[in-house]
Amino acid sequence: MNEFLIDQLSETPSELDQAQIERWQLRLGQQQDDRLVTLQYDRLGFKRRAGFAGLKSLNLFDYCQRVGKYIGPKARLDDLQFDNLSKQPGNGDVINFTNERQRVVVRVTLLSAGIADETDQIDQIAYFDQHDRLVRSIYYDSRGFKSLEATYGQDGGVALEQFFDTDGAVRLTFGYHREGEQIKIALIRLHARDGQWRVFQQFHQLVAYFFDTLNQRGHHRFIANSVVQLSALADMHTPAENFMMLDQMQTNDYRRLQSGQPTQAFQQLLAAIPADIPLVAATAQQAADIADRWPELTVKAVTPIMPIPEPSAKLQGQRLIMNAAITPVNRLEDGIKAFRRVYRELPTATLTIYGTVVDHQLFSQLQTLVNTSGLSEAVTFKTDATKIEEITRNADLFLLTSHYEVYPTAMAEIMAAGVPAIAYEINYGVSTLIEDGVEGRLVATGDSKQLAQTTIDILQNDALRQKMGVAARSKIERINQQIAVPEWAELLK
């Protein structure tokens, strides 16, 4: 069984977790008996997992707390009784309970209607002392049972967390201590299924024990995508075939990919990775760059399998799109500056920028750039998670202006729907997906003027754009069928 490791199933997953989810979904489409294994505590995870059709998953905390399909009573507001306290409705789903001096002693938060199964289902209860300091919090799983109780110290930091099973017994505890401004784990105790208490000093040791327990029940292959997961794999006592997906660059210096200062994340990876766990890169060039610089590492290149959506692109207008998280590395300002030239030439053109806001200061700067450039009527930001079909239905041409890409997944998905692309000539993977003049155009990195003129040329030529769109979809299909699927089959056989 292949275990695809992620932190949690959130509504807006990190790029790393999203890549893992897509790998699992593609394997699911091949009717494989694979599973998503989530490692962070997530009281709402059960509800989120229910939204994935055919999802086979396991959560570390659910396993440690011995939580199965809980069908018991839900904790509801009417079940609470606080002597000598008055109930005072707060804002939204918050209810305060005050003493005779109108001081809040208890604050209850209810689950929102989209998550709760029953009316007035409790999400959290917070208790305050006479100095209005938070001293204790009780958290409820979305399934309805008391799941976690946190106790806080005099400094306001968490001192102890106790995790409960559905019968109210403590199964897992985390003790904490303060080091300067940081609260760190001091001790972890697990009531194991053999009845013994086991002690761990660090979180990745608990994760390693979890992996070993799973591995003892049959052959498991663990597919990691973070350093914490990798540290746990290194601590395992049972033999397993593991590997690390390299969804990151080895350096932020896109001009010196083979010699630039390693990123902090890659330095952590180098410190944690055992010699027997290979790295899996998305392109042969990145694998070669890493192997040349760090010959002690084993690096494999495996082309990502891309989802192939129904061809939703109409290519009937002058609608330009970008789809990238709002971070400096994606250089979205280049697209806006190029569009400023496009808009002067083609006043009916529009630019829609899709992407999660990671850097809020940058987002504000990009909005200011749009407004000061007189583009507020033509440029739109859509920062909510959007399905690829919704994006491509409103697209005639795609722009990629990143400093670098591990693999331009967003571009490949959009090309698969039949949208041509213009991209900077960057590492890695862009030239694999685009042959200049066939599926789109490649322009010199950072050349905003060339980017603008190339965009104008394609937007003005309907026949060329249609031809490139057909070629773009065909290219992704061909890469999938002839390269990616065989490589993944070999990797996971």
UniProtKB/TrEMBL annotation:
<protein>
    <submittedName>
        <fullName>Poly(Glycerol-phosphate) alpha-glucosyltransferase</fullName>
    </submittedName>
</protein>
<dbReference type="InterPro" id="IPR001296">
    <property type="entry name" value="Glyco_trans_1"/>
</dbReference>
<dbReference type="Pfam" id="PF00534">
    <property type="entry name" value="Glycos_transf_1"/>
</dbReference>
<feature type="domain" description="Glycosyl transferase family 1">
    <location>
        <begin position="319"/>
        <end position="474"/>
    </location>
</feature>
